[in-house]
Automatic annotation (TrEMBL):
Organismal lineage: Bacteria, Pseudomonadati, Bacteroidota, Sphingobacteriia, Sphingobacteriales
Ranges for domain Bacterial alpha-L-rhamnosidase N-terminal: 172-342
InterPro entries according to UniProt: 6-hairpin_glycosidase_sf (IPR008928), 6hp_glycosidase-like_sf (IPR012341), Alpha_rhamnosid (IPR016007), Bac_rhamnosid6H (IPR035396), Bac_rhamnosid_C (IPR035398), Bac_rhamnosid_N (IPR013737), Ig-like_fold (IPR013783), Rhamnosid_concanavalin (IPR008902)
GO MF: hydrolase activity
Domain called Alpha-L-rhamnosidase six-hairpin glycosidase: residue spans: 457-802
Entry protein name: alpha-L-rhamnosidase
Top EC class, one word: hydrolase
Organism: Sphingobacterium suaedae
Length: 912
């Protein structure tokens, strides 16, 4: 039976299959999953997965052949690179080491692997194509209209969509046709009347003065003989800012514009480029009369430009496209997946309201839009308003959207059935109010379109506790809803910003649910490019809002996400690339904000959004209050120094390492002198103030037990089994309690249904994660119902501490499996697709026995901690483990027996 898995090639994903055989020839089949024409680095990371049913399968060597043609590859001629047989277990991070590759070069490769159980056949061929490596590879010029047009409203800053088109003739037989497009802010493009690609809201957003993402499409099959027609429609996106009234705060980049070229390679070897120039025609007098992420899209079907993307359209009344100023940023291939419509939802109810209105309920909070089917008279207007929840009288609750209108408008052209969905907006919603709909609206007339980045779900978790399961489900919907080419805070109100402070540990937990390594690698670039020359890093990156508040805990996410990516993928190049910028920021913060006592004094937010003591105490109160804390900034700086010690060693900056060690030692002493109260508590004796020195290892060894007792007392006695942490403390609470030996307390917090807890959100109707613990009663100014920041380290705890799936070495080549078999939880089933393959941990308690099924992928191994003091109480596959030849008992530790296993599936039974 063949098993399929996923392989990462520095921005590409490959599917590999591995069959067992004797003399154990292993068959690998590789297929590209994402667009192959988007690699712009000379040393891409190659990888493969080995799937085999045998136990303890380890790679001992490999051989890679890379060729310039498929024919050469099939003849085993590596004219670009033949690695030869390399003795190594590395199958996830092999750097291409062949000839330099030029723009548009097609590359074909295959791999043969050698294992301790035999040698494989050659894999099926895989390929990638180099993108445009140089600025001068772009031969076209930017076109558009760099001023307000008649259809725009300059007073309100409202722009109509820009429509651009060109016809041309192909007079020879085409061998290959490749299109390169940068449409800013957002684009859709058409060839001969058909939309190209299934991407939406493309390209991924960046700070366009620093870098710009281009997309690549193979359109060989879409060309026809003779005449051709190109059409591009441009929306605003993040390029033309959603709010023009605050230039001191909001960064804007200009009017929508286009750079495009179509490379035609003919069968006779000649090449032609169709590019953007002033031969293109354009208009703003089309059906999309307004578009904006915050406010929605207005579409007047009476103004449709029927046939404008096809050959022969009369564009004589259109304007000549203008040459416009380029945005300024470097052109880069987009290596993260496109945003797409990833799922369609049917409304669970359609309720007819008074005054000709209907209320749609989709039963789930998500981000995207509604596709509508309608019949009616010409000029009739249908208005769709979006919201996350309802008021007590059953109407839309929109106050928490602030001034985001979250409204789509469709004006009918009146000719039969009309089907419409917006192109250049999205909403965060569960409910939709439909006004002006002609006829009797039915469920089948509306489809909710769930939009997020094309990222695979790689994690699964279920347990015997329904609250834990629902929290996991809510987390998945919330995380996916906020993947928009960058990690945004929320999808509904007039914000939607990539706040660094929301993601320090959330990004880590998200990696257990989604294959988000490329996504967060892109975000690290956004952060690096937003850094000021003096070292300052903003709170929001890309810096669409000019917030450089110089705190530690928000910009420190830069270092923590890099650490997560290295831990989960073992890609050292992430750290190497960003190390100089991280070092500059660490120096910047120290020289500006360390006082004479050696304390880092600068903090902006404190433990942001900690819960009011009771639900009533917070009723109607605004959570947007800052409580700066020098304890938090100093503790975080100490923690980040520890990471920089590791990074300096990894990047061979030994002199830096010594300095970081020295600084950390001094800061630890200064911190304890300043903040330790001598009675087992720190600072203001809050839960967060005590958690941080415990988690970060700042507390001295002789005071550690007192501090642990104090933390437990706050939760058990003062909080009655609940947390009292905001966004800072929640990042660390679950793992800290578990490491203290109080996994029972962490489980109690996670399974609570009363305020404040994740379960309380569910009890009050949440289908995602709220921004505030008291989001149902807080002042509506800041109470998003679809946020991720309060997840903290919960998902990490699910997978690493409840399931026991934790990377111990080289991106899961060694897995530490040490679950907390907490009282009251009878079953956990978790799966995670890592770089080596799927890891499974499924345990259940039956009477006085523990049954634990474990699967470890080939070329990796695990250290398993079984909960018993007696090795003779453990069996696997009906056989006492000391009698197994394919596992090794390493010893006993704190009530557990540690066993080393290799790849394969194991069924352990522990009799207690």
């Amino acid at each position: 039976m063949t098993k399929s898995t996923f392989i990462w090639i520095m921005g590409l994903v490959i599917i590999a299959h591995n069959l067992r055989a004797a003399p154990r020839a292993i068959d690998l089949r590789c297929e590209l999953q994402t667009n192959p024409t988007d690699i712009t680095i000379q040393e891409p990371r190659l990888g493969w997965k080995i799937v085999a049913d045998e136990r303890r399968v380890m790679q001992t060597a490999y051989r890679i052949i890379v060729s310039s043609s498929l024919d050469l590859l099939q003849e085993d001629v590596g004219d670009l690179w033949d690695s030869g047989k390399i003795t190594s277990s590395n199958s996830t991070a092999v750097l291409y080491a062949g000839k330099d590759l030029s723009s548009r070069t097609g590359v074909f490769w295959k791999v043969k692997t050698f294992t301790n159980v035999g040698e494989s056949d050659w894999s099926m061929p895989a390929s990638w194509t180099m993108g445009l490596l140089h600025y001068k590879d772009w031969t076209g010029r930017w076109i558009g209209f760099d001023k307000y047009q008649q259809q725009d409203d300059e007073a309100t800053g409202t722009l109509a969509a820009r429509y651009l088109r060109k016809e041309f003739t192909v007079q020879k037989k085409v061998k290959q046709a490749t299109a390169y497009i940068i449409g800013l802010g957002l684009y859709e493009w058409y060839l001969n009347g058909k939309k190209i690609g299934d991407q939406v809201l493309a390209p991924a957003p960046t700070d366009y003065t620093h870098n710009i993402k281009y997309n690549v499409f193979d359109v060989t099959q879409q060309l026809q003989e003779g005449k051709q027609a190109l059409g591009v429609v441009l929306g605003n996106g993040r390029f033309y800012a959603m709010r023009q009234a605050k230039p001191y705060k909001v960064k804007t980049f200009g009017f929508p514009k286009l750079l495009f070229q179509l490379l035609l390679t003919y069968t006779d070897g000649s090449v032609e480029v169709i590019k953007t120039d002033d031969s293109w025609k354009g208009t703003t007098d089309g059906p999309i009369v307004a578009n904006n992420e915050y406010d929605g899209e207005q579409y007047d079907a009476r103004k449709e430009l029927t046939g404008w993307t096809k050959i022969g359209y009369d564009d004589s009344r259109w304007q000549k496209a203008e040459y416009v100023q380029e945005p300024g940023g470097n052109y880069e291939a987009q290596r993260i997946g496109h945003m797409k419509v990833m799922q369609d939802l049917q409304p669970i109810s359609v309720l007819k309201k008074g005054s000709g209105k209907y209320l749609l309920d989709f039963g789930q909070n998500f981000s995207g839009w509604v596709k509508m089917r309608v019949r009616g008279k010409r000029g009739q207007q249908v208005t769709l308003r979006f919201a996350e929840s309802l008021t007590e009288d059953g109407n839309l609750f929109t106050t928490n959207l602030r001034d985001a209108k979250a409204t789509d408008v469709y004006i009918l052209h009146g000719e039969g059935e009309e089907i419409w969905e917006p192109r250049f907006t999205y909403h965060g919603f569960r409910y939709v109010e439909v006004e002006g709909y002609p006829g009797n609206a039915q469920k089948a007339d509306f489809i909710g379109r769930f939009v997020y980045d094309d990222i695979e779900t790689v994690g699964h978790f279920s347990s015997s506790n329904s609250v834990l399961n629902q929290i996991h489900k809510n987390a998945w919907w919330g995380i996916a809803s906020n993947y928009k080419g960058m990690p945004v805070d929320c999808p509904q109100r007039n914000e939607r910003q990539p706040w660094l402070g929301d993601r320090p540990m959330s990004a880590y937990g998200e990696n257990f649910l989604f294959d988000n390594a490329n996504f967060y690698a892109k975000w690290l670039e956004d952060i690096r490019l937003s850094q000021k020359e003096d070292g300052a890093i903003p709170d929001v990156a890309p810096a669409f809002w000019r917030y450089y508040s110089d705190n530690i805990s928000w910009p420190g996410t830069y270092i923590m996400v890099a650490d997560m990516l290295y831990q989960q993928t073992a890609d050292a190049r992430i750290v190497e690339k960003h190390y100089p910028a991280m070092k500059k920021w660490m120096h910047y913060m120290r020289v500006r904000y360390m006082d004479e006592s050696g304390i880092l004094t600068k903090d902006s937010y404190g433990d942001w959004c900690f819960p009011p003591a009771t639900i009533e105490e917070g009723r109607g109160k605004i959570a947007d209050k800052k409580y700066p804390s020098a304890l938090i900034s100093s503790a975080y700086y100490y923690y980040l120094l520890q990471r920089m010690v590791e990074f300096s060693v990894l990047t061979r900056n030994e002199q830096d390492s010594s300095e970081f060690v020295h600084l950390a030692s001094q800061l630890k002493n200064n911190f304890n002198r300043k903040f330790y109260k001598g009675n087992g508590s720190y600072g203001a004796n809050t839960l967060t103030d005590n958690l941080l020195p415990m988690r970060f290892g700042i507390v001295t060894e002789n005071e550690k037990e007192k501090l642990a007792q104090r933390i437990a007392a706050i939760i058990e006695k003062e909080n009655h089994g609940h947390l009292s942490t905001g966004v800072v403390g929640t990042q660390w609470i679950m793992r800290t309690l578990t490491d203290m030996g109080r996994a029972d307390l962490a489980y109690r917090i996670a399974s609570n249904k009363t305020y404040p807890s994740w379960g309380y959100m569910i009890e009050n109707g949440a289908t995602t994660i709220w921004e505030l613990w008291n989001g149902n009663t807080a002042h509506p100014k800041m109470n998003s119902q679809n946020h991720v920041m309060m997840l903290g380290d919960l998902l990490i705890w699910y997978y690493e501490n409840l399931a026991g799936i934790k990377s111990a070495q080289n991106g899961f080549q060694v897995v530490e499996m040490k679950p907390s078999f907490v009282e009251g939880l009878d079953h956990v089933d978790a799966r995670y697709k890592g770089l080596y393959g799927e890891i499974v941990s499924s345990w259940k308690k039956i009477g006085n026995t523990l049954q634990w099924t474990i699967s470890i992928p080939a070329n990796s191994r695990a250290n398993v901690f079984l909960p018993t003091n007696d090795v003779h109480t453990i069996s696997e596959g009906g056989k006492q483990i000391t009698k197994h030849d394919d596992m090794e008992v390493l010893g006993q530790e704190a009530g557990t027996v540690q066993v080393a296993i290799g790849s394969g599936t194991y069924h352990f039974i522990v009799t207690r």
